[in-house]
């Protein structure tokens, strides 16, 4: 069943993933909150669907369309994501909730909608786009990391629950990727009040985001951050390889530097804290 429903295709990883699946001969349903942002994908032979992952009706309609037009669904890629850069004290409950709505509840909605069909087919793959931040929390990104930690926990449980039905659940854990995501996070940082007690933290977070976006920075830390970023096409290749594998791994990390970053979770907390102190 070579049909793929992909969320968050207006730019970055989602768009690159839709393009990669299409090149590999899949029937692609690319989604975005505004289909004007993905109109060009229609011209290139892909189906487009308006989908806000926070809306139950949108999710049910999108999955229903794929199933009706293909008599099943092969793959769901939960890529849509949202990050709010803020110190935990500055982060409002509404801002925290919004990140969970998109990053955690959204994938849960899509999985619940697609799984009955996948179980009936006795095949299918759910790909959840996590992050190094889903394994290692970072100052200034506590809310985002919390939502990704939760996604990892749900995915691990789900993988064991549906394996017997022939359904695979895969986590993809990119590190820094050259997408507009970092630019949007930097814009959010600039909205924080100048008199915040965490102003220095926001300045550093902004510099790191700039390092990701510009492939480098003025100091060693941001310069290195820029150098270890990867293009979204690299992530897309990994997603498609995982889905087309008859026995995919539970987790995919994109590059050696990303694997090294994820290993930071095994360091003693005191050591991690000292590292962060030198960075911020």
UniProtKB/TrEMBL annotation:
GO terms for molecular function: oxidoreductase activity. InterPro entries: KR_dom, NAD(P)-bd_dom_sf, Sc_DH/Rdtase_CS, SDR_fam. The keyword Ribosomal protein does not apply. CDD domains: 17beta-HSD-like_SDR_c. It holds the Pfam family adh_short. It comes from the Archaea. Residues 2-180 form the Ketoreductase domain. The keyword Oxidoreductase applies. Belongs to the short-chain dehydrogenases/reductases (SDR) family. This is SDR family oxidoreductase. It comes from Halorutilus salinus.
């Amino acid at each position: 069943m070579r049909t793929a429903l992909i969320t968050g295709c207006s730019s970055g990883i989602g768009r690159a993933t839709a393009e990669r699946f299409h090149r590999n001969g899949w029937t692609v349903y690319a989604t975005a909150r505004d289909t004007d942002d993905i109109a060009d994908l229609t011209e290139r032979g892909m189906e487009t669907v308006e989908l806000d992952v926070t809306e139950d009706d949108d999710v049910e309609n999108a999955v229903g369309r794929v199933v009706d037009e293909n008599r099943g669904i092969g793959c769901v890629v939960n890529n849509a994501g949202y990050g709010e850069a803020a110190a935990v004290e500055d982060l409002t409950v509404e801002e925290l909730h919004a990140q969970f709505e998109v990053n955690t509840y959204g994938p849960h909605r899509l999985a619940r909608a697609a799984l009955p069909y996948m179980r009936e087919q006795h095949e299918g793959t759910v790909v959840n786009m996590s992050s190094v931040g889903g394994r290692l929390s970072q100052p200034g990104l506590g809310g985002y990391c919390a939502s990704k930690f939760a996604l990892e926990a749900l995915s691990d449980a789900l993988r064991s629950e549906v394996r017997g039905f022939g359904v695979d659940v895969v986590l993809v854990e990119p590190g820094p990727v050259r997408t507009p995501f970092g630019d949007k996070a930097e814009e959010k940082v600039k909205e924080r009040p100048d008199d915040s007690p965490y102003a220095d933290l926001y300045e550093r977070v902004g510099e790191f985001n700039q390092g990701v976006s510009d492939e480098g920075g003025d100091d060693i830390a941001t310069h290195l951050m820029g150098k270890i970023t990867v293009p979204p096409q690299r992530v897309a290749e990994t997603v498609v390889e995982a889905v087309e594998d008859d026995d995919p791994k539970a987790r995919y990390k994109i590059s050696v530097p990303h694997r090294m970053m994820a290993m930071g979770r095994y360091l003693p907390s005191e050591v991690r804290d000292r590292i962060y102190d030198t960075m911020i």
